[in-house]
Amino acid sequence: MNDQSEHKSLASSRVTRAVAGLSTKLLLLTILFVMLAEVLVFVPSVSNFRRQWLMERLQAAQIASLAAEAAPDGRLPDKLRDELLDRARVKAISVKHEDSRVLIVRMAKPQEVETYDLRDASWADLIGDALMVYLAPDNRVIRVVGEPDFSPGEMVDVVMEEGPLKAAMLKYGLDILGLSILISIITATLVFLALDWLLVKPMTQLTRNMVRFAEQPEDPSRIIAPSSRRDEIGTAERELAAMQNELSQTLSQKTRLAALGLAVSKISHDLRNMLSSAQLLSDRLAEVRDPTVQRLVPKLIASLDRAIRLCVQTLDFGQAQEAPPNRVRFALAPLVTEVGDALGLPRKGAIDWDVNLESGIEVDADRDHLYRVLSNLCRNAVQAFESVPDGMGTISVFARRDGAVVTIDVADTGPGVPEQARKRLFQAFQSVARKGGSGLGLAIAAELIMAHGGHIELVSNDGGATFRVTIPDVVVELERARRRRA
């Protein structure tokens, strides 16, 4: 039952794609536009046909009038008059010269007629009159006035039935319609095949390749093979191939790095446990009174502490993602004091601790996250002092509020960030504080601040490093999100 529903769904999707595809739309639009062009040609053609047909009647009437002028006293016998009128397909003829007028009449009684003057008729009038012929009754009588082409200056006025004209126009219209349909089919087919070959098929191949590549982007065999075309389609194929190749390599690399990270996390977890055991044993060595042991134990303990800290930071950074910040509004001063106490600041005769916060300043953030950020920045400053011979200086923390944004500066008077390290700030495992450091502190700090919609940067490196942390209130973040969605 499920297989049948899947087959029906697949067939329905194929029908939908066929109906809504580019090829179908292109074919329908081509036929529509070609037929529209034929209509635009048909209407003037019919109008011109009617005018030429009426001009032929005027010329035939003028020839008939010449016979009347040649008759004695300008009067024709009834039989000859009727024959001339029949040949001209009119009921009455009136030809006006500069100094004379010839009249040939057979009408039994006067009739109401529609008059058309071809001498000063515009194209719009001719087109409108031609279309009205198809709507007029078959027995309508019309009066036509004009000047034959071969005899300018003479006005020919005829009265005739419109039925023969309508029949001729219907036949002409059907001929034009058939020819238009034939031309439309041929033109539409040629245009469709050309556009389908030049545009639709390449676009369809591009679309299919993108869908196929999206199903398994790490498979190199699904990368499109660009053609040798030099137009926009060829450019799109080459750019798509380059993008897919880069994306495939990136995803493959990320997969390998993820597997490597998982392995490193497992190793770090076990290594941390082993180092913790070694640390307990080293604590017992401190009780040994041997001078050599007493001299080496502090260095051993410090090395073990650094190794354990590296394992802990690696495990923290290797988590899938940090927990979303639980933002509350709290006073900043107690948090900064807590950071200083945890790092043993100030250190008498070595590191001064200068806290200069705006009075009563509060920050809208996750307290634990911000503690980790400030702790990492201050710890890096302490380690920077420890990397120089004298190890003396000052760590300063400044904070101010500008509207809905809090800015915190952590500055030190140490050696600053090395030139080669500035390009890789906030990258994991790229230590900037001291040789042998993990380089995870700034990476974790940047990730936590980014989760708050804020920013962290190195704003000064003269006479020491100054890092600036900017945290907007949650209201500002919501407004930014609304603008992005808009």
UniProtKB/TrEMBL annotation:
Subcellular location: Cell membrane
Topology with respect to the bilayer: Multi-pass membrane protein
Sorted UniProt keywords: ATP-binding, Cell membrane, Kinase, Membrane, Nucleotide-binding, Phosphoprotein, Transferase, Transmembrane, Transmembrane helix
Chain ranges passing through the membrane: 26-47, 176-200
Keyword Nucleotidyltransferase among UniProt keywords: no
GO cellular component labels: plasma membrane
Domain of life from the UniProt record: Bacteria
SUPFAM superfamilies: ATPase domain of HSP90 chaperone/DNA topoisomerase II/histidine kinase, Homodimeric domain of signal transducing histidine kinase
Domain HAMP: 197-252
EC number: 2.7.13.3
Record-linked Gene3D superfamilies: 1.10.287.130, Histidine kinase-like ATPase, C-terminal domain
PROSITE patterns, per database record: HAMP, HIS_KIN
Gene Ontology terms for molecular function: ATP binding; phosphorelay sensor kinase activity
Enzyme class name: transferase
Catalytic activity entry: ATP + protein L-histidine = ADP + protein N-phospho-L-histidine
SMART domains linked to this entry: HATPase_c, HisKA
Name of the protein described by the UniProt record: histidine kinase
Organism annotation: Methyloceanibacter caenitepidi
